[in-house]
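Example 5.3 — DUF4242 domain-containing protein
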Amino acid sequence: MPLFMDVHRSLPEGATFDDVAGAHEADLATQERFGVSYLRYWVDERAGQVFCLVDAPSAEAAADVHREAHGLVADEIFPVREGS
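Solution (predicted structure tokens):
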């Protein structure tokens, strides 16, 4: 399945790492219906940004999970390849 990195450029005012962790848990509870697997996420609380790594059939499917799980849809979703 393709791999995507989504970028949330502006979290809601006052959002914390724990809030993002809760949203990620909601993604995990929702993802199976869309054939998606959210793998990891990174949070920059100071800048109010979040980055999510997701295995999904399409960028749209990844966005659909966020939309249904908590409504915080990414500003951008990029196809990526993992390297080491």
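Remark. The mean pLDDT is 95.
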